[in-house]
Design brief:
With 661 residues, the chain is an alpha/beta fold. The chain is built from 24 helices and 15 strands.
Amino acid sequence: MATQQPLSVQQNLTIRLLRVLRYNKARIERALTLMPEKHKPLFHVLPFLVHVNHEALPGYIAPLSSGESVPFGINNYSFRPDIEKALLRCFPAENHLFSDIKQIWPRQRAIESLVLMGSVGTIAQTDDSDFDFWVCIEGHRFSETELSLLQQKLTAIEKWAEHTFGIEVHFFLSEIDKVKENDFGIAEGESAGSAQALFLKAEFYNTNIVVAGKAPFWWLTPEKTSEKQYQAIYNSLEKGGSPDLDWFMDLGHLEKLDASELFGAAIWQLGKAMDSPFKSVLKMAKLEVYLANITHGQPLCNLLKKHVHRGVEAPGRVTDIDPYALMFDELVTHYKANGQPEDIEILQQCLYLKCACPLSQPPFEGEKANFKRRILASYARQWGWSRKQIHHLDNQQDWTFSERVQLSRRVHSFLLKCYRRISKELSDHQQAMDEKDMTVLGRRLSTYYAKKEDKIEFLRRAFDESLYCEKITIAMRQLKNGDEVWSAYAGDLLSKSGIIDEAQKISQAPSAIALMVWLVSSKIIDTRSKVYLDYNYGEVSELDLNDLLKHLCKHFPPVRVSSLPRNDLLAPERITACFSIVNFPTLRQKATVEDVAVIYKTSWGETFLKFGNDVLDTLWYDLQEVSPKPSCYVMVPRGNQQSRILGEFLESNELNFNVLY
């Protein structure tokens, strides 16, 4: 019996490539399965718009008078019937362009690859998942002007997608040589910059789908490969060979992660948690797992690659591999081994809520459960969840306000706990994060999490719109010592029974102004909300509260900390707006200035509330001797003495106030 000859390096590479291609195809099919019908054309149209440049289509950039023109055209991109069908749905009037595609098909190929990364094509994909593309180019081939034109083209396509489909699309222009050296620029907006260069690359390798063009060569190397072995395998490829060198781009090897980056990555995730807490819980937990395995373990992307390469050991199973589920299983294994059951519980709830697949709603008759439902149902069974528990999680709209806030607190408590554990473990390591990036991210976190005297604290939320109240009831009670407690309750509790339901309590504060400022800054109420006042208190009226609400929403709207400008955070903190509220709680018959409350906000996104007639005096320098000068506003509640009080206030203050009525 003849012995089986061992496979050559090239044969092994070809087998791996076939399995990677099969996995990539399965991810694309999954992405399209989970997309709402109206968004499906976008998946095919976006690469096409990057590939061509025609004045009748979004993303067109005209040549400059200097002769320079925008680079476009994607390597190995071909026109297929499904692309034509999607284009006709989006641009029916341009049928003539697509029936004879040669007239607009580019001769050049400026873009090496268009690669999607993130939750698309995984169990974490939802109807409003962003499309995050890496547009991979050989940067040295183009001038600064050409790169700028390409960025303009990509931005124009992003805007068209947002306007037409309501979907956020981000194109990250990625120069292959820079990515290979882990250079991702500064930490601003969606870019992680120096905060977590290797982690960003690991995340890319873990979740990438090649939509068009060349595949990352990383996919072909075994999961445990040294830098030297990686280069040797890459050098063994030839143009025209099998596999062909021209099918790949080299974004660099990733053998292990760097502990010096972990601290920056943890700060980055805490920052991201301000907008997407559920996603950040899983990612922060992943950093903690990476830290535990930093000396002997390997990045999750290499584990994923091992599963994809071994696809033949379980025929057909390669298509069942899910990067998100794989990550989650690793996290649970770690926290079980470290005896942290309360952490596992919050991870389970965050995964389930992030995936937005309500298991309490059965599939439609005749509808086959998709891969996402199968995986999540299997998890819920493993976790021992009852139908009642699942129904409760699926119906957040029925939760009391305190139930929602409770989950939010647990989420942020977990994040801070993880961050502290990571910081403690890394205290001896040199940090790789750029100093300016560290300053920007550190100040964002301080704005969001730090407690300061007179500062209006941020509501650490896990939900967004679900905390918003169309109707809200404000009530005041006086303590035995004479102090007031002002409380806010979700809904109109007065017209129902007149009895205050403590289960609907949102928050309380020592003054009506403090309560209203917090409610607006926490995005619980806005100008569309109706404020009801429990009439057991004399001076402050429902009308006063609604007037105050109007002015706060206009001049002190909620701050999105993650969007604070980088330059503001690198500069010294300064006051940007100041609002004085005069005689809000005092008797309306009083004709003199009795009570002054001052609200001011800063360039670092912090809002402060101080009481006293001398507050403006102590802030004189920040309000008067700076450039640009902050806007100053004043409000006196309606009443017979309003103009007299206003006159006295303006006369006693040298600042230039805008009067609000």
